[in-house]
Specification:
Layout (H helix, E strand, L loop, with lengths): L5 E5 L3 H12 L3 E5 L3 H20 L5 H9 L1 E4 L10 E4 L5 H14 L5 E4 L6 H6 L7 E6 L8 E6 L5 H13 L3 E6 L6 H17 L5 H12 L5 H8 L1 H15 L8 H8 L17
Parallel strand pairs: 1-2, 1-4, 2-3, 4-5, 5-6, 7-8
Antiparallel strand pairs: 6-7
Helix pairs in contact: 1-2, 1-3, 7-9, 7-10
Bound molecules: nicotinamide-adenine-dinucleotide.
């Protein structure tokens, strides 16, 4: 089983630059691909800023920072994927866009190269089917912020081979992460548990069972959660939670996943949480 020494990361946004950084600090070369120079420069600046903070906190020395930065290269040309051992697609969450990107990557990457996607909500089996290598296609679902978060969900599509799971599992460990292997299913494991819990907190709040502060205190002190569910919903974005609950409701066809009416109402009002300055709490702009 050959190890992965170079990774192509498609998308230099929040997740893509985090994945490239995690590779680079672990000694793995990362080439980031995005649509243009502006997006690539923003991605590199985010990595440089994040590494700088680690140096300030004395978690990384300056020489290691420089070596990590030197392992990250950027291009808008997909031809760079010809030389990588693994491609991790982390572009915008849009099925048609991902189909196009994956077809392109499949045509360029060597037949032994693994294609992985960081999608949160699109079926891994469906994405694998647009490529000619469904057995070497897998979900690698990282968590935000990638350099800090210890988990990677590895998602098996219907055709994903054991060898592919073995290789990406070794990659996740090389990045200092703990992988869990999950079958393709909406929300995988973590979001399937987390999002209905956040939705239920909104039901509790709208029924007047307790105040937002009391609900959040309850889960912090009663379950040792670092943040309460309503404060977390404000961080995730109410629109993002509503989109996920709508997918669960439609895909499982089960009313236990129905979005809380107050969630719909707040999204309609533009109260999206931190990013809009108002959600279950208010935030200074
Ligand atoms: P983002 O908007 O920060 O970044 C997406 C990047 O993709 C942008 O830089 C955009 O220019 C780029 N892009 C668009 N079209 C492209 C193309 N044709 N080729 C190359 N790059 C292209 O989004 P994000 O939050 O980083 O999310 C990326 C993926 O990760 C999504 O699938 C999302 O569901 C998933 N995800 C996000 C989170 C999160 O918390 N943000 C967590 C886990 C998974």
């Amino acid at each position: 089983m050959s190890t992965i020494a170079t990774v192509g990361v498609i998308g230099a946004g929040t997740m893509g630059n985090g994945i490239a950084q995690a590779c680079a600090v672990s000694g793995i070369k990362a080439v980031m691909i995005d649509v243009g120079d502006a997006q690539l420069q923003k991605g590199v600046a985010a990595i440089a800023g994040s590494l700088e903070r680690l140096v300030k906190k004395e978690k990384l020395c300056a020489a290691d920072r420089d070596a990590a930065l030197a392992r990250v290269t950027t291009t808008a040309d997909y031809a760079a994927l010809a030389g990588v051992d693994c491609v991790i697609e982390a572009a915008t969450e849009n099925p048609q866009l991902k189909f196009d990107i994956l077809r392109k990557a499949d045509a360029i990457a060597s037949p032994q190269t693994i294609l992985a996607t960081n999608t949160s909500s699109i079926s891994i089996t469906q994405l694998a089917a647009v490529t000619k290598r469904p057995e070497r296609f897998v979900g690698m679902h990282f968590f935000n912020p990638v350099p800090m978060m210890a988990l990677v969900e590895l998602i098996r599509g219907l055709a994903t081979s054991d060898e592919t799971i073995g290789r990406v599992s070794a990659l996740a460990k090389a990045l200092g992460k703990t992988p869990i292997v999950v079958k393709n299913s909406p929300g995988f494991v973590v979001n399937r548990l987390l999002c209905p819990m956040l939705n239920e907190a909104i039901f509790l709040y709208s029924e007047g069972v307790a105040s937002a502060q009391e609900i959040d205190e309850g889960m912090k002190l009663g379950c040792n959660h670092p943040i309460g569910p309503l404060a977390l919903t404000d961080m995730v974005g109410l629109d993002v939670l509503l989109a996920v609950m709508n997918v669960f409701h439609a895909d499982f066809g089960d009313d236990k996943y129905r979005p809380a009416p107050l969630l719909r109402e707040m999204v309609a009002a533009g109260w999206l949480g931190r990013k809009s300055g108002r959600g279950f709490y208010t935030y200074a702009k």
